[in-house]
Design brief:
The chain is mainly alpha-helical and 559 residues long. It has two domains: 4-214; 231-381 and 443-554, Hemolysin E, Chain: A (Up-down Bundle), CATH 1.20.1170. Helices cover 92% and strands 0% of the residues. Helix 1 (4-71) packs antiparallel against helix 2 and helix 7 (408-510) packs antiparallel against helix 8. It is rod-shaped and about 200 Å long. The chain starts with a helix and ends in a 5-residue tail after the last helix.
Length: 559
């Protein structure tokens, strides 16, 4: 079973993963560009500079050698020797930076060239053969000098091409980082938005259905079809509980309505029987009055009175049986009402459980909002790295400016690196905006859950009021059961007295001389019976009124 908490965590985990991937890719690409830049600064650019220096040194020594031969000024020779010493340092740096055979051959040729000038050209000139020195310088030394210079130019050109290729690699990497960052950012926005919409819909839609159903149940509408639920999470369990509560409540109301109608019908029958018993009592009183008028007709009418009393006794016994049946029905109503009360208490407890679940979901979404703020801190770290890259690019541009003409190519590369760092900074700003959107979505989800929580709380209050109504019905049915028991006792008492009356009338028929005493006894019994029948009639009316009130309460529910 995948809970609401699991769904929300899965959605935010995916969004966080996309942001982490974007950050990791940006860091990796920045490090890669930095390595290329460091390679240019530390290896390729120094090699180019040293090659250019050696080429410049060689051209200067050639010029000073020619000037010395042409003008004979010793300062030119000293400058030649000074540049020669400088060339040795340059050659050592060049060999330390590059181990190519071409560079070694060029350095060996330059050493031979220097030896040829010092030992042959300068020697011939100092011996007084300036023409021979010029001839050697022109025909032998100059071609070698040109070859060496062309070689160093070629070496410098190769280094420039390598630096340019490295720069193009850095720019291509920067473009790749830009495109990939844009794609991942767009994907993160789309996926984050979709996940927020889907997650909110999965949580709020079922809660709104349950809220509407609880309102319908509170209004007494129990004839709706059960709510559909496909998930097995907390909302699925809540939906199943709501359906079961509606079914149990509808069954209880149907049984209560049936029993109430039965009680109403039987109370009407009891009222009719009591009315008939009351009429019989009045007839007995009339008969007793007639007996007091003349004892002569007493014996003749005693037989008729015996028959009337037998009929009366049968009706009284029937009324007694009806009262017992009504008592049994009221007991059954009382049992069903108590069951309904228990079910309502269970429903109230279930609504409190739902309240706790929704409240916990609100707390979980607030925790995820805190995690998104941690992502914002991570994005800030990426932004700081981008700023450092921008600073390194600025330092590289300064160093390229110091190199003069030899550093122009690297200055272009440094400027591209700086632009790349700025683009990464803009991408980090986009990520920050995305994270802000996600945080806003989280807050909207929190507000939706809090609204659902208020609706569940309202449903809980309505269920509680329904439970209180059931408690009132329970007390009414209990009171009705007590009154029915009292009516049954009265009917039992009347049945016993009716049998005594019947025996008294038979005694009157058998013993006419005791008619006066028997008439008084029958008259007293008749009066007592009339009072009892009045009491039965009153209780029957109260029973019918209670049954009508119960039916009215139950009919508030639409099943």
């Amino acid at each position: 079973m995948k809970s609401i908490k699991g769904k929300i965590l899965a959605a935010f985990s995916l969004t966080i993963s996309l942001c982490i991937i974007l950050g990791a890719f940006s860091i990796y690409s920045s490090n890669k560009s930095l390595k290329h830049s460091q390679n240019i600064i530390e290896e390729e650019l120094p090699l180019l500079i040293e090659s250019e220096k050696l080429l410049y040194n060689l051209s200067q020594r050639t010029a000073f050698a020619r000037a010395y031969i042409l003008y004979g000024d010793e300062s030119y020779k000293e400058k030649f020797l000074q540049y020669t010493d400088d060339s040795q340092n340059i050659q050592e740096k060049l060999l330390s930076l590059s181990d190519s055979e071409e560079a070694k051959d060029l350095i060996e040729k330059s050493v031979d060239w220097r030896t040829m000038i010092v030992e042959r050209v300068f020697t011939q000139y100092e011996k007084g053969n300036p023409e021979r020195a010029k001839e050697i310088l022109k025909n032998e030394v100059s071609p070698i000098s040109n070859d060496i210079m062309e070689g160093f130019k070629g070496l410098a050109s190769e280094q420039e091409e390598l630096i340019q290729a490295s720069g193009e690699t850095v720019m291509a990497s920067g473009k790749s980082v830009k495109v990939t960052s844009i794609i991942i950012s767009i994907a993160a926005v789309i996926i984050g938005t979709l996940l927020a919409i889907v997650t909110a819909q999965l949580i709020t839609a079922p809660l709104l259905k349950i809220r509407d159903r609880m309102k319908s149940v509170a209004a007494g509408e129990l004839d709706h079809d059960p709510l559909e639920h496909k998930s097995n999470d907390e909302i699925g369990e809540l939906t199943a509980s709501a359906n079961q509560m509606q079914k149990n409540l509808r069954d209880t109301i149907e049984k209560t309505l049936a029993v109430s109608e039965s009680v109403s019908n039987q109370s009407q029958s009891l009222t009719q029987s009591a009315f008939e018993g009351q009429q019989g009592s009045k007839q007995i009183a009339t008969t007793m009055y007639e007996l007091s008028e003349g004892s002569e007709s007493q014996a003749n009418r005693a037989t008729e009175m015996v028959r009337m009393m037998e009929d009366f006794t049968g009706k009284i016994e029937q009324a007694h049986l009806d009262g017992a049946a009504v008592f049994m029905s009221s007991s059954e109503i009382l049992t069903l009402t108590k069951e309904g009360t228990i079910l309502m208490r269970s429903s109230v407890q279930q609504m409190k459980t739902v309240d706790s679940i929704v409240k916990d979901a609100v707390e979980q979404v607030k925790g995820l909002d805190s995690r998104s703020q941690e992502i914002s801190q991570l994005v800030q770290v990426i932004k700081d790295i981008s700023n450092q890259t921008n600073l390194l690019a600025l330092n590289a541009a300064i160093e390229a400016a110091r190199a003069g003409e030899h550093g122009k190519g690297f200055a272009v590369v440094a400027d591209e690196v700086r632009k790349l760092a700025e683009e990464v900074t803009h991408s980090v700003g986009d990520i920050t905006e995305i994270v802000g959107t996600i945080q806003s979505g989280s807050k909207n989800v929190v507000r939706s859950l809090e609204d659902g929580y208020s609706q569940v709380d309202e449903g809980t209050k309505q269920i509680t009021r329904t439970g209180q109504t059931f408690e009132t019905i329970n007390h009414s049915v209990d009171d009705m059961s007590t009154k029915i028991q009292h009516i049954t006792d009265e009917l039992n008492y009347i049945s016993t007295n009716s049998k005594n009356i019947n025996l008294a009338i038979e005694d009157i028929a058998a013993v006419s001389e005791q008619s006066a005493a028997g008439i008084e006894q029958v008259s007293a019994s008749a009066q007592q019976s009339s009072s009892a029948m009045d009491e039965i009639t009153r209780h029957a009316g109260e029973l019918e009124s209670s049954a009508a009130q119960l039916i009215e309460q139950v009919q508030n529910f639409r099943i």
